[in-house]
What we know:
Layout: H1 15-35, H2 41-53, E1 56-57, H3 58-64, H4 69-81, E2 85-90, E3 93-101, H5 103-123, H6 129-145
Helix pairs in contact: 1-5, 2-5, 3-4
Amino acid sequence: ADEGGGRKPSGSARTLYLIRRVQFASYLRLEQAVSGLRLTTAQYMVLSTLGHREPLSSAQLSRRFSVTPQTMFKLIATLKRKGLVARKGMNGDRRSLYVSLTPAGRRILAACEQAVGALEANLFRNFSGRQLAQFRRHLVKFLTDNQ
């Protein structure tokens, strides 16, 4: 499942091409890691976001993931059917529903984080701690500069 036919990228490859190859390869491996827990990558990412920033409204989640409200509604509905998230009004307001993790959602997220941690350790096994920290700083800078 190597995009580009298994060819090694050359040192002269465009940066955007390299980013796309890295994204594709890492996304496939992430998908494999969470599929063992019966989740899609998108479902894992929503659970992870809620694990760090809950509760969030469906609208906040759709903006954060740059998807339509309808797409996020379907994603949340699936997670709710699986018993991993709950929706409830905040401060007595039944019109404004917020999504949060259930105890089962927290358990699945913990298992996912363990699997994803092992995946990241494998993917970045040839980076020193300093190199990985610098790489992460560059990624954050890129995202901050291009929002």
